[in-house]
Amino acid sequence: MERTTSLTVPRIKLGSQGLEVSRIGLGCMSMSGNYGPPKPETEMIKVLHHAIDTGVTFLDTSDVYGPLINEILIGKAIKGMREKVQIATKSGICFEDGKRGICGEPAYVRACCEASLKRLDIDCIDLYYVHRIDTQLPIEVTMGELKKLVEEGKIKYIGLSEACASTIRRAHSVHPITAVQMEWSLWTRDLEEEVVPTCRELGIGIVPYSPLGRGFFSAGTKLIENLPDDDFRKSFPRFKPENFKHNKQVYEKLNLMAARKGCTPSQLALAWVLHQGDDVCPIPGTTKIENFNENVGALSIKLTAEDMKELESYASGDDVKGERHVYMSSTWINSETPPLSSWKAE
Ligand SMILES: NC(=O)c1ccc[n+]([C@@H]2O[C@H](COP(=O)([O-])OP(=O)(O)OC[C@H]3O[C@@H](n4cnc5c(N)ncnc54)[C@H](OP(=O)(O)O)[C@@H]3O)[C@@H](O)[C@H]2O)c1
Question: Residue ranges of the NADP-dependent oxidoreductase domain (predicted)?
């Protein structure tokens, strides 16, 4: 098996409750679909073992990836090495009659957690995220159940994904939040104004998802040319032809700077995220050992303040066309929940 032996992956503390993870994690979503069909299980187990051998031990999954089969894959891959890895999974996105919904009801969260434990074949989930915020009920209600799951030893730490500052604050007052997972990359910086400062004030770690712009910063135009019809990215506004013909210039500039710096565009894009701070742990996704090795190489890239500024100038203002997500209505911008008092009164 191919191994990266030249680089020791550092460890960082994520949040203030004691969770320790590798400086960079591994997003496992695309191993089980979303970006084209699910990949062969034996191949993906090799990628996972290689990541763990390299020191990338923070594995990111969700019950909705696959759905369900991604957790089963992770469960198989980590057999006999449970103590080496930190497993992060999520619940909250549900499908009923083919329709996508969001649910944070206590009974639902508990059932999902117990089902994830079975699929992962573990006794305790290291980090359990609310994948999307249920805006029909106060966040305190969902958090109350998560707190019980911590007390029962079924989960160690709690995280939120796509939550606004006030929802993070309210959730944190019920039980400390360890990490907030949000999309963060050169072309997605909407969290920087309020979410990042709130996390830092409360001692919450930040886990940037899609740090490679869902593969755009790695492959640019080639990504779009080669997307199969069942690739979820086809429906993303930024990848629609009318927007992409404009957005591709961001990759072109990134590529030129990478050549100048002697690295790849993926590494440069990831290095920009890594330079946001030691409380930031990106989880680039890949299904290939070669790409994984390249991404880990980003850990050794040093960027100056001028480099950071130049990179940021490629995707500022009107430089990027199209919303970052296909379901903007369920992102942090719409994640305020009703006050607890109103819910109790019902
Ligand atoms: N909380 C949420 O709502 C949420 C949403 C989306 C994702 N996530 C999590 O975040 C993780 C990462 O996000 P993501 O997968 O959407 O996007 P990403 O990490 O920005 O990009 C992944 C894509 O880039 C490609 N890639 C990676 N490294 C490469 C390299 N060195 N060279 C060429 N291509 C490369 C991958 O293809 P190959 O497989 O061919 O390498 C894949 O198509 C997911 O796996 C998931 O765990 C969370």
Answer: 23-313
- Evaluate if pTM is beyond 0.90: yes
How remote is the CA of residue 64 from the centroid of ligand 1, in Å?
A: 15
pLDDT of residue 287: 98
The residues facing 21 across adjacent strands are: 12
Would you state the structure tokens that stand for residue 184, as one six-digit string? 């963060």
- Ligand 1 center from residue 211 Cα (angstroms): 7
Task: Report angle CA 282, 284, 288 to the nearest 5 degrees.
Answer: 150
Instruction: Give residues with Cβ within 8 angstroms of 281, minimum separation 6.
Output: 12, 14, 21, 22, 23, 24, 25, 58, 179, 205, 206, 207, 208
Q: Per residue in 33-47, pLDDT tens?
A: 999 999 999 999 999
Residues with CB under 6 A from ligand 1: 27-30, 35, 60, 161-162, 181, 209-215, 218-219, 266, 283-288, 291, 294-295
Of 108, 152, 139, which Cα lies nearest the Cα of 336?
139
Q: Report the alpha-carbon distance of residue 102 to residue 209 in Å, rounded.
A: 19
User: Among 27, 334, 20, which Cα is nearest to 181's?
Assistant: 27
Q: Considering only CA atoms, give the Rg of the chain.
A: 19
Query: Do residues 159 and 128 touch, judged by C-beta distance below 8 A?
Result: yes
Q: What is the pLDDT of residue 4?
A: 45
Best residue among 90, 273, 286 to mutate for probing ligand 1, ranked by most atoms within 8 Å of CB: 286
The catalytic residue positions are 65
Residues 6+ apart with CB under 8 A from 205: 12, 13, 14, 15, 19, 178, 179, 180, 199, 279, 280, 281
**Is 63 exposed, middle or buried, given 0-12, 13-18 or 19+ CB atoms closer than 10 A?**
buried
Query: Contact 122/87 with Cβ under 8 angstroms?
Result: yes
